[in-house]
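A common beginner's mistake is to predict each chain separately and then try to dock the pieces by hand. The better habit, illustrated here, is to supply every component at once so that their relative placement is modeled jointly.
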Amino acid sequence: MPETRTFLLEIGTEEIPASYLEPAVSWLADELKKKLDALGYPGKPYGEIRKMWTPRRLTLIVEDIPLMTLRKSYLTQGPPAKVAKDADGNWTKAAKKFAERHGVDESALSIEESEKGSYVFAKIISKEEKTYDFLADSLPSIIFKIPFPRRMRWLKYKSVTFARPIRWLCCLFGDEPVKFQFPELTPSNQTFGHRFAHPEPITIDHPDEYVQKLKDASVIVDPAERRKQIVAELEKAAKELDCKFLRNDELLEEVVNLVEFPRALVCDLGAYTDLPLPVLTAALAKHQRAFVVVKDTGWGWGDPQLTSYFLVVTNSPNLDPDLARTWFERMAVSRLEDADFFIKEDLKKGLEPLIEEESRVEWVKGIGTLSDKTRWLTELGTSLGTNIDGFDKETYIRAAYLAKADLLTNLVREKEFTSLQGIAGAIYAEKMGEKPEVCNAIGQQYTNSPSSNESAILAISDRLLNIAATFIVGKPPKGSSDPFALRRQAAAIMKIIVDRELPLNLSAALDRTIQLIGKGEEKRGAIYTFLTDRLRLFLTDQDFAYDWVDAVLAVAGDEPYDAYQRLAAFRELDKGEEFRLVAVGQKRVANITRELADTPDPDTSLFGQEEEEALWKESELIRPKLDAALDKRNYRKALELLLSLRPAIDKFFDEVFVMVEDEKIRTNRLHLLAAVRNEFLKVADFSRIVVEG
Amino acid sequence: MSKPLSFQEIILRLQDYWIDKGCILMQPYSSEVGAGTFNPASFLRVLDERPWRCVYVEPAKRPRDARYAENPLRVYQHWQMQVILKPAPEDSQELYLGSLRALGIPLERHDLRFTEDDWESPTLGAWGLGWQVELDGIEITQFTYFQQVGGLDLPVIPVEYTYGLERIAMFLQGVESIFDITWGGVDGKQMTWGDVFLRNEKDFSAYSFEEADTDYLRRAFDHYEEECARLVKKGLLMPAYDAVVKCSHFFNLLDARGAISVTERAATILRVRKLAMAVAKLYVEGPDTDSDPEGEVKDA
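With all components supplied together, the output reads:
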């Protein structure tokens, strides 16, 4: 084993946005791994990689990197062979000069064939390089390549950009500080602790002491440890109040990335707790990044009981809680007063008058107003709902009519409360005395798991209109860019259809959508392909093998829930091997019957062998049962019936030669096979199932 | 405990602090602006490569924020302290924190954060990255490294600190309403913010929401838009910029009056931005010498 050392890189910065941190450090780790992998060691030339960060530092510790890179030998091309050797086969002056230039003697030269002909080549063995040098050379470019959603300049150089200004670089290879070129900065073995608790520089003598020395300086650099500490702090604070805090994972992740030294602070709102819980939570989370405290009701179910307390995670080791609390509380109360004010204003008007205003608000430029959308939602959902058992048309129409009005309320129009769209509508609708079913549908229109069919149809119709309109105005998702989250919306459509077992037909739904919008017929194909692609992805995400999904979608791509049921039947029957055997036969049949113009039933009078007769009889026999099973969508039964044909099929192929000279008999045999295949195609195109080996 | 700083003392302390750090003391602009950034001491001075450091207070007039003096935290006209340091120094954050210490705030006993904020002024064609500075959850300062102003990439990156003076005063004085802030005194008699500006708030609230003549404002907007374009052609930088500032204020008033629809809103902002960009270009490149000003009689 070569001698190794631990490497530390800390990029010290001004506060980087919370959401940027993890992706940046992960990218940095991957990039460094790639570089180290290229050093040519067998196996990986590094041990454990620790990714750490706080808002003010991006840190990587890589253990056990070899001290020296490996020697590498490579060939370098010189002049053409005819110039490099004379008539006697000796190296010419030109060849010797070439060798000299590369610091090798004649023995390193050879003639090799390249794409362009024969040339002289010199074998060059690189010197061992110090890993230190290698790192020092690579680091500056790696650091500037770290991707961020938004970058900024802070120096005069146009090419120097980062998420926020870089203020120090602490870099060590073992106990040796790594010095490298960097604009306006000299990397060193110094870092800085907490901004207020430990402002003076800290010298790191070895990467191993980095984490502890920072901890001594009030910085917990490992995000996992910070998360643990935050949860512990919150639990402790809540417990002292005989309460618990409302878990909010998204908020927790954000808070982990906002502090270096977490400290929970208990605050009290006083009276402001009669706001609806979603509004209260949104206001406190968005602005104070605070956690709501609820009564600890033991194992109780149902709605949590609010208290007037909330918890803020501060970043201050020497915090004076009594001093700091005041303004957190006042600002929270003021936010909630704002929310309360908006709600009261909104309730003065109610949702109805806002529906008139919808005609003055553009929905999608070139497509229509919000009022158009509301009308289309009503119509689209009404037609989608007709085939659905227990779909209450009146409930739906009322919910669709009110659905978009909350976008014009004071509450939802405020930046911090936009996330309450739908929820706000439901709250208002309830206060205005709408039926619970109507409120429910309004409140669930943006979710992925609506609890009623009316909610489901509203959620699906809304997304279908969004997708169609966005395609029609020429803004479909491209590559990694999907600014309107259409893929997520399409996935939600599939999920809802399957979860709620809705017999919806994509083609028909899309036709109706385009018909309502009144334009975009030419984009229908593209939208349909987009939807079926999303259906395919949704199904493979349900752990159905992609080839089975292909086989089913080839014959039943229009109805997501139907496709799902077919796949579920395959899975339930769990006869993969047998199906694969069927697939082998079906592939053959598919191949040899491809040229057939039409597939009439075979002429029984032309049957010459009993296996023909037998196969036809069997298939005739199961046909009515198969059709009956399909009518009831009993795909399991259908599959069992199809499998029962296998012995007859196998016998046929064993005993009957299809491609005989006699054209009549040949065609008749093909017609027989095609007829059997048509039975299989009623469930899936088995020829698409991948058969290994 | 010593007596908390009055509003005027806060202004003086901050001014002294920044003058000591090499800033020139400027004064508010003479026309209505929504933010200190509109003052030419910021908007124009950041556009070129010459070093610049300035500090000034600016009354920010925002018709939509008017609340008839009924909201303790929102007012038609609040006061900003604007600081520009160009180029942004290496210790931009520390210098800023020093100014809070100069106000006597024991930062280590409070919770001070630099919270992500991507600042943008669509009307000025300006954006920058930085933070909202939050002290115990109150936003007290907008801290921005300008990247683009007037649609132009800046040759030298400046830092802008915009202090919300009322927020800081409330924090220091422990009062819950802007109107209760101690401003200063007249002949030893204490004057609050409300004593000075209550009437201003009430009247301008009524004006912003009820009385502003929207037909006139539309005409005025159109007029100053044309005027700006004309003056840019003539190379008259300062009056042209003045027209941009006026258009922006007319837009704010129309917006508060609810006279601008959602779609019109974006289009109107774009109209102001075009003007701001033309003026920025004029400042950087000088007058367009190729154009032949209309009606100019050339010597034979």
